[in-house]
Amino acid sequence: MGVALREVLTDYKVPVGWDALSGCAAIDGNNALYQFLSIIRQQDGTPLMNREGKVTSHLSGLFFRTARFLEYGLKPVYVFDGKPPDLKSSTIAKRREVRDKAGIAWEQARKEGDTEESYKQARAASRVDEWVVSSSKELLSAMGIPFVDAPSEGEAQAAYMVQKGELDFSVSQDYDSLLFGVPVLVRNLAISGKRRFHGRTVVVEPERLYLSKILEGLNISRDNLIEMSILIGTDFNDGIKGIGPKTALKIVRNDAFQETLDKKAPDFDPRPVIEFFRSPPVTDDYTISWNKPDESAVREMLCSVNDFSPERVDAVLTKMRTTAGQKTLDQWF
User: So what's the pLDDT on residue 236?
Assistant: First the structure.
């Protein structure tokens, strides 16, 4: 998912503790839900489900992680994707195919009793569908947490809100946020902690990236960063075979972007992709307001409807109430 810029961004990732992440943050909602669905599973990959067989892993992740955000003074605004651009149709089709194949492989691995392979394929089969999004919005409303429906890409809307100074930073796993011009990007908030990767347990910590420092350090402009990404491949275009981040960086530094496309992909017009990253559809039709949680609504949704432990839910609600009591109402809500 997203553009593969990691190789040239390693030196610009600043490890950051939770206690240094206070402020107002735009959370890439679809990205966060996908992460929750991927990691909150049983050993054989089976997700959490309610008595009706509906997946609830995302609700668990959303509730407990959002409560942790608030505990550390981070006030989240979840931003959800709207209609995907036509440029993304090929990527969406490829992702659907990958998920479908993974779903079949998951069932086969479960039948064979291969727990490790089952878990791996289950993660790849994760999908954010209408139920996942609608139930997440219902829970956020009950918790008093604002969310925004983007007209198109959620990352673009999040970047716009940070650029306007309404929020302090954006949270997403994808580097695409940088292409949309977000000044500050924080990664790993939805997946921080001990996680299983390739059969081993690793500790994932939050990290912060500053767009200005990246551009200065790489000695390029934001337009060059977009050009690099187009050469590597984005959600909106296939990259050029054989060109990775380091090679793409050399090309744009030598002002050879168009020359490279003329040679390697003469039939490809990069202008629609460049324009989308520069001026994506965004909206000002939203209200940002944090409210006191409706505790009865939270309990009804999580415990009565979706079979969460009342003791665990009440413990979090009590902690939220206690933490809020240590702040002024203006600071908290």
Answer: 95
